Amino acid sequence: MSLQSHHGYLRHINFCNQWNPSSFIPFVVGDMPMGFVRPAFAESLSRFTDTFIVSSQCLKLHPALSTFEARNQAIAAVLEELVVLRVLDHLMGELYPVIAAWGDEPAFLIDRTAVSLFGIRAFGQHLNAIVSTESGVSMWIGRRAPDRHAFPDQLDQMVAGGLPFGITPEANLAKECEEEAGMPKHLVARAVSTGQISYRRENRAGLRSDTIFCYDIALPTDFSPMCTDGEVAEFYLWPLDEVARVVRQTDKFKPNCNLVLIDFFLRHGLITVDHPEYPALRAGLQLL
Known about the structure:
The protein is of the alpha+beta class.
């Protein structure tokens, strides 16, 4: 099967990589750039003189905060104050590591809601769930619940979520599979890590600098996902050509899910080298 009749894939990669570097200044911890912030937000942090040093060139974490514990405490106090000031709506209580690259020791931890404000790198996991039958290969697709704060009612991978601090990717994937799809661990064990995609995009809060670890899983025909945490409204089992049509012709998927699916199509030969967008698609999935 070849999905080459339309040229609507690249627009999703372009959408997820819209940002103007001149609109941001580096956020620096020690001598290491850890993120990017808007100058107006940096200036709003100048009141926290024990935590930040603000200049027109960069936002620096105060060098007196030299330990993991001291940084965590100081940042947590700042974020609580930002909620009071209504810069942040709320805190999620889910902590992300502040790192320059995957595998680094974290400089400190930050609540998930503040990731975009500081433009730090964040990591997540998305699972492509496929089912093979005599009629062909299909993929399980989820529709996000209408009460989701982000991207309500949009389509999503069957299982997808952020990767917080203090849990391994394997354990986190198993947890997400259980919560979002009711998948038992013996099935999760079939998941195969296939690589990663990355992108950087401005949003209302600041900057998303995201890396998604991608997985494929072949599921038996007698398994039907069932959400247990309220994040997914319903599931659909669609033939791969229908999934590809929706990606090409619509914006029904959550934006970063399109990139995960494009990666899947490339890896499985559903977008081949004679597709006019092929080189740009290959190059555009690894921009961090």
